[in-house]
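Hey all, quick one. A colleague (J.T.) asked me to put the calcium ion job into the tracker so the inputs and the structure tokens live in one place instead of scattered across chat threads. No bug as far as I know, just bookkeeping. Sequence used:
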Amino acid sequence: MTPRAADQSAPAVCSPSTARSPWWTSAVVYQIYPRSFADSNADGIGDLRGILGKLDYLAALGIDVIWLSPIYPSPQDDNGYDISDYQDVDPVFGTLADLDRLIEQTHARGMRIILDLVVNHTSDEHPWFADSRSSTDNPKRDWYWWRPPRDGLAAGSPGAEPTNWASAFSGPAWDLDEATGEYYLHLFSRRQPDLNWENPDVRQAVYSMMRWWLDRGVDGFRMDVINLISKDPRLPDGPVTRDGPLGDPWDAVVCGPRIHEFLQEMHREVFAGRPERLLAVGEMPGVTVEDAVLFTDPARNEVDMVFQFEHVTMGPHKWGTARPRLTDLKASLGRWQAGLAEIGWNSLYLSNHDQPRPVSRFGDDGRYRVQSAKLLASVLHLHRGTPYVYQGDELGMTNSPFASIDDYRDIESLNHYAYEVGVRRQDPDRVLATLRGVSRDNARTPMQWDASENSGFTPGRPWLPVNPNFAEINAEAAMADPTSVWHHYRALIALRHDEPAVALGDFTMLLPDDERVYAYTRRLADVVLLVVANLSAANADVPIADAAGWAESELLLGNYPDSGNGLRLRPWEARIYRRLDPTSGFGRRISRLDDDIDKLQPFAEDRTAATLPPHQRSG
Ligand code: GLC
Ligand code: CA
């Protein structure tokens, strides 16, 4: 693809806007869930050497950054999000030497690599927690949240937990330690005790660990549930949830009173003064657009972008199966585009290791699987922000047809089933139907590399069954077929690299009330891009101004073999057009560009050389 073709007339002055913007505005991140990516030693679990063997695959796709889900020593209660040693590699994934080699080989291919930073909690097997629980006067007691039973109630009696909070993984968020008679807080599983960030020693220990990894060559971090680290120290009860008797902790823990202070301190202690611009991505459930502006305002030195959850939690609750109305989805994503238009930056994602497969959730994973997978990618990648590709989405991988509860491994899914069926006496078939739609294991089935046994993921027995559709949906077949979902992703990634309007253009939502068509424009100086997509299995017209003119414009990318008839879209059809704004003359081009450059001034310290990883710099 040569997306710059129509740009021949552009004066050379066009380039400074991109040279000054941070490198990640034109980058695409690829998330690897190591357990499920590639197994090198036949134990049925993916590992670092497996990833090493697939780096050329990632380079061929064109991605810029790898985000590795946790590879640290862990009892694997939550597949590695329960860490027992922050400065090593779990033997199931390999060794520190394997990781060093992976970092080096990733850099050698011009890509960067960021690690998952899980510091809201540790594993209960972390030595810090072992010390903390050993006695009430241990120096590390205060590194976690310990509280006596509720006033007037005996430890262990019903309702004696210090607050009424529910954990995100079902049941109370407090567990009693029999030896000391106190409870510890765990917002996730009972084996993931929450660290007490009020304690400055905890913070310094985390910062020093982070510096150690940066010194080792990693290019930044994806920070797990980082907006939960500051809790309202009064620990107030929360509103009782729909099923009672437990309460919702979120008001007291989401973006708590010291969250900005902690992130600014982290920035000073860890990132500031390093020559290369590193990447800090905050995963932030419950974050609002207004919060996100503060978190990602470059002048505040907190994080570079956040993962927000609004568009993946649009149902009544996590376990609702209904797909969102398209108008609701557009209203939400459009609001985030508008809210971060002037200050801050979006992360763009439809899936990750915690979400079902997008083609099953938002698209059509049957007859229109290929078209709808390409459509969803096109719509997402052309928004303003940094797109994230979750492993296998570039193949259009689908949800898995789990038959019974024994097929699941995910702690959240297993706990939910046990609670709904065992405690709330719900119909097991209904609970299973829900899990089939939204369980995290849908995203965690092994990567489908080829049509050989176990999809080429492992010569052993995979830890989670391979999706039976691997003979049809796999990387080898996709790479050999120029019309595949994989090649479409490759084209989208290249488009972000090559067309400044994709990275930096402003965003305007069109047709907000249309239940079938997603349409928007991006504009940078006088280049205008139009994205139109039909999220339905019937034909749909795109009733925008100058539809006929747009249909005659340059079609950059579509998901049908021909350009079709006017702006009438076929089932699950998506098109990306580009044209020069006929209303703008050369003078307007220059002044728009000046405006655009001014908007980017907060990033002015980024010079081209400084935006490249060290190995890519010349001289
Ligand atoms: C994040 C992770 C998820 C994990 C949870 C607790 O949401 O993405 O996988 O279970 O935090 O660490
Ligand atoms: Ca292995």
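Adding what we noticed when we looked at it: Residues 39-41, 43, 45, 47 surround calcium ion (ligand 2) (CB under 6 Å). The chain has a mean pLDDT of 91.
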